[in-house]
């Protein structure tokens, strides 16, 4: 009887689930080779797989024409190490006026921190 059961299982075809392949792979906007991701008023700069990333938070905005432009920004250098929970997660903090100054200091901090 076991031979007839096994022959039935082998003869039946098992349908494999279809895997959807996206036509376009999502790619993040990059600045100096590192991704920039925005979530509301917070901008994350750097790769999450690295030891450090930066977080830029827009505190105030001003209207210039039809655009809202970040006026007062907070920049933080963060550790992404999940194993060492006793260490400080926020390593550096700065306040900047304007997005260019904030990304510039964030890039300098990341370059120095990742070079160590």
Write the layout of secondary structure elements.
Blueprint: H1 2-11, E1 29-31, E2 34-39, E3 42-45, E4 52-64, E5 67-79, E6 90-97, H2 99-115
Antiparallel strand pairs: 1-2, 2-3, 3-4, 4-5, 5-6
Task: Kindly describe this structure.
The protein has 116 residues and is α+β, with helices and mostly antiparallel strands. It has one domain (28-115). Helices cover 23% and strands 41% of the residues. It contains two helices and six strands. The chain has a six-stranded antiparallel sheet with strand order 1-2-3-4-5-6, covered by helices on one side. β3 and β4 form a beta hairpin. The model has no long low-confidence stretch (mean pLDDT 82).
The main sheet comes to:
6 strands, antiparallel
Terminal CA distance? 68 Å
Strand portion, in percent? 35-45%
Class from secondary-structure proportions: alpha+beta
C-alpha-based Rg, rounded: 24 Å
The helix/strand order is: HEEEEEEH
- Kindly state the number of beta strands: 6
Morphology: extended
Percentage of residues assigned to helices? 10-25%
Number of domains: 1
Strand order of the largest sheet: 1-2-3-4-5-6
Low-confidence stretches: none
Overall pLDDT, averaged? 82
The number of distinct helices, counting runs of at least 4 residues, comes to: 2
